[in-house]
Design goal:
The protein has about 300 residues and is of the alpha/beta class. It is about 45% helix and about 10% strand. It has 2 domains: about 160 residues, no CATH class; about 130 residues, FdhE-like domain (FdhE-like fold, Alpha-Beta Complex), CATH 3.90.1670.10. Strands 1, 2, 3, 4, 5, 6 and 7 form a 7-stranded mixed beta sheet that branches. The two termini are about 35 Å apart.
Length: about 300
């Protein structure tokens, strides 16, 4: 697939961030490089799909958003089928190249797809709705193969939605969205960040700090929330919130909520000038995932790089 200038900038940003991460934590090379390469390919796919996606199938209703209903909630994904097929064809070979240990499972998924026993749009709808029935009951796949299918569906859908989500960004920003789940697709965040300090006063600022943004684990949309909000349970009791970080490492921490037992990695841009790609940054903070889990907390979104069983 051709690479547009925006995608090229993303790829360069990923490469720079990988160098920074491995300069500090070379022991993470085995997970950072494969996922960074996969994220670069996903960015290329998302860029190539822009002209194939018609956002008019989705009604961006200010009323629905005001009621806490994400843009894609209840929408049939049939119109995404051609884009999902293209993304599947492009990304599965990339996964095989960087994750050879799961090639047999991926071969089985490709065979099932060729035999039309996997409906990508239906699986994508179920994934967004939080119903994994289609994944659990996927025909002709072993239990391990069904786990691999979940990874593939998330990856393929993520590429498509990352291409589609910018179409709604302006309308979504006009709505006061102060919830922990994404206003575009309804997914939880995989990472958060604090912006550089801004001069203007805002209800989203506390104690002179930067504004807090959540980054959607699926569609990649970023949205602003109050600093004290837990995205998982939406508890705002400061007494229930704390954070962990590694001494002498500025700008990286993991925020935890004792109310619900979940945690979320966070980058504080007031303490670092590093340009970053948020998904890659999340992988590069796997050491903080391990620290939080050792203390008994659970990730807000489970991912291959933060699952240590």
């Amino acid at each position: 697939m051709p690479t547009d200038p925006v995608t090229a900038d993303v790829e360069q940003g990923i490469q720079r961030l990988v160098a920074v991460i491995l300069g500090k934590r070379p022991q993470l090379e085995g997970i950072v490089r494969p996922f960074a390469a996969l994220f670069s390919e996903k960015a290329r796919v998302a860029g190539a799909l822009k002209d194939d996606l018609n956002a008019t199938h989705c009604d961006v209703s200010g009323t629905r958003l005001a009621e806490g209903i994400p843009v894609l909630a209840g929408i049939s994904f049939g119109f995404l089928t051609p884009a999902l097929e293209r993304a599947f064809a492009a990304l599965v070979p990339a996964v095989k190249a960087w994750f050879p240990a799961i090639v047999p499972e991926l071969d089985g998924i490709e065979i099932a797809r060729r035999h039309a026993s996997l409906d990508l749009s239906q699986l994508a709808e179920e994934y967004v709705q939080g119903s994994l029935k289609g994944l659990h009951e996927a025909p002709a796949l072993s239990a391990v193969g069904r786990q691999g299918l979940g990874f593939v569906v998330q990856l393929v859908l993520s590429a498509v939605l990352q291409s589609l989500a910018p179409s709604f960004a302006e309308q979504v920003r006009e709505v006061h969205w102060d919830r922990g789940y994404c206003p575009v697709c309804g997914s939880l965040p995989s990472i958060s960040y604090l912006s550089k300090t801004e001069a203007a006063s805002s209800e989203f600022l506390v104690g002179g700090g930067g504004q807090r943004y959540l980054h959607c684990a699926l569609c990649g949309h970023d949205w602003r929330v109050r600093r004290q909000l837990c995205a998982a349970c939406e508890c705002e009791d400061n007494d229930q919130h704390l954070y962990f970080q590694v001494p002498a490492v500025a700008g990286e921490r993991v925020d935890v909520c004792r109310h619900c037992g979940h945690y979320l990695p966070c980058i504080d841009l007031r303490e670092t000038d590093i340009a970053f790609h948020l998904d890659t940054a999340a992988v590069g903070m796997a050491h903080l995932d391990m620290l939080a889990q050792e203390k008994g907390f659970n990730p807000m979104v489970r991912a291959p790089w933060n699952t240590f069983e």
